[in-house]
Write a sequence for this structure.
């Protein structure tokens, strides 16, 4: 029997309480109003607070078929080796569907003309002018709005495109091969900064730059990569990405280091080629290197194609719940899951949050847009935010936030990728394999680092920040998988 000692002072009634709150924020006020200290634990019921979904989730968690498939998917991601091997000089030389038709590829899941955002409209108009299918923006818009131009998603053509992601028949492409698994991925060439087609600009100077790509830049890039291909099978993009993580990039919104490494890989073969190639002059080499050197985001498109080649090798595995593509069209965000074929699971795109350039504000922003979130699915971008302290200045956070974001992504991924080291996390491997089940179970939505586009066509980038992938995408994917896998 323990006796009460009157000399021991009971502090419960004399000191303000320290409370850990797990639940509604409404409980917080009474604590803080009376001088108490409060720590709120971010928590929500599993299954997105839907009992039926929670039961489906419970049945899928620990399923040995899923665990085996996800292990295979992440091993394919880890073992992938993405090599830049060529520059096809025309997209219609790669895709027969573009020959004899008026077809434009765009970023994100499917979207009709009527639902497209301002930048997508502007970029579509610019592509029609670039191809010579119309001579004025008004004529181009009429062709587009009356169904005389066909649309398709870049992802359905083994391709990705930043922001609006428009690819048309005459555009040169970047071709990347996954040397481990043999699949190929494509993208267009980065336009640099300022007024660009990818942001919806379609003025004569924008079209002139695309024509310069055709005549000058693409042949120079092709010469460089083919020279390297003959000696080393191309240029190893995954190696550049991995090295860039050690140099302050997360290889999505920041590509300063990766572009510098890429420039080095270009300059040596071009110096060796010299004037031996009659189709590529010294002046063209100088112009091209100057353009790359002045475009700190030039490597972004290469990073995207590299990640597309990596993630496509992990797609199509029965029972796998690993996300293999995340894409946005400025209206909706969609994702694909390895075990669910080519189906898109979509929800309205969120508005990126971050810092805006002088003169712009949140209400000017376009909803999240672009195929560049393929980098997050491969472990870069938001997953590797801890590698890029400089990016926090643009995203409006702190270095502590960047580290926390990467740690969060471990909670919703299958494993760590030892090929992608994050120095700020004691060189731990980057998060690898976003698992639909874990997203729905934890309530943690994948983080995407992103540029912020103006909602009107042609204004361009107005800031940089972060955005979370809508939870509804994962809820729809989980429900569909449960419907397929739990039939018996």
């Amino acid at each position: 029997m323990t006796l009460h000692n009157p000399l021991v002072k009971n502090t419960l009634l004399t000191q303000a309480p320290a409370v850990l709150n797990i639940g509604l924020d409404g409980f917080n006020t009474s604590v803080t109003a009376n001088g108490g200290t409060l720590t709120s634990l971010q928590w929500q019921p599993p299954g997105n607070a839907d009992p039926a979904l929670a039961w489906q989730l419970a049945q899928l968690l620990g399923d040995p078929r899923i665990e085996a498939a996800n292990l295979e998917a992440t091993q394919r991601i880890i073992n992938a080796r993405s090599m830049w091997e060529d520059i096809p000089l025309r997209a219609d030389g790669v895709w027969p569907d573009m020959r004899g038709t008026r077809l434009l590829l765009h970023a994100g899941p499917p979207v009709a003309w009527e639902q497209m955002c301002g930048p997508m409209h502007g970029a579509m108009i610019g592509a029609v002018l670039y191809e010579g299918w119309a001579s004025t923006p008004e004529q181009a818009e009429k062709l587009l709005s009356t169904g005389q131009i066909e649309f398709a998603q870049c992802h359905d053509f083994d391709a990705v495109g930043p922001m609006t992601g428009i690819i048309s028949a005459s555009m040169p492409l970047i071709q990347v091969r996954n040397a481990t698994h043999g699949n190929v991925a494509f993208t267009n060439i980065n336009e640099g900064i300022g007024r660009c087609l990818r942001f919806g600009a379609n003025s004569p100077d924008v079209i002139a730059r695309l024509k310069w790509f055709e005549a000058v830049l693409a042949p120079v890039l092709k010469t460089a990569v083919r020279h390297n291909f003959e000696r080393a099978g191309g240029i190893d993009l995954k190696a550049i990405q991995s090295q860039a993580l050690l140099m302050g990039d997360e290889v999505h919104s920041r590509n300063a280091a990766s572009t510098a490494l890429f420039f080095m890989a270009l300059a040596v073969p071009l110096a060796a080629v010299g004037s031996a190639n009659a189709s590529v002059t010294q002046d063209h080499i100088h112009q091209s290197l100057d353009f790359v050197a002045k475009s700190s985001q030039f490597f972004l498109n290469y990073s995207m194609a590299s990640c597309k080649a990596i993630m496509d090798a992990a797609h199509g595995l029965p029972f796998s719940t690993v996300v293999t593509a995340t894409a946005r069209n400025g209206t909706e965000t969609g994702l694909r899951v390895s075990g669910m074929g080519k189906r898109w699971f979509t929800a309205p795109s969120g508005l990126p949050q971050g810092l805006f350039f002088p003169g712009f504000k949140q209400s000017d922003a376009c909803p999240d847009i672009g195929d560049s979130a393929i980098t997050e699915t491969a472990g870069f971008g938001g997953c590797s935010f801890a590698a890029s302290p400089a990016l926090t200045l643009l995203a409006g956070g702190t270095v502590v936030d960047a580290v926390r974001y990467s740690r969060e992504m471990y909670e919703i991924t299958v494993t760590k990728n030892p090929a992608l080291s994050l120095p700020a996390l004691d060189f731990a491997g980057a998060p690898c394999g976003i698992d639909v089940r874990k997203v729905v179970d934890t309530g943690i939505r994948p983080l995407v680092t992103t540029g912020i586009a103006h909602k009107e066509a042609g204004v361009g980038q107005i800031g940089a920040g972060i955005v979370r992938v809508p939870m509804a995408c994962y809820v729809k994917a989980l429900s569909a998988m449960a419907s397929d896998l739990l039939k018996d």
About this structure: The two ends are 58 Å apart (CA to CA). The longest helix spans residues 204-232. The chain is about 35% helix and 20% strand. The chain has two domains: 55-78+307-485, 81-304.
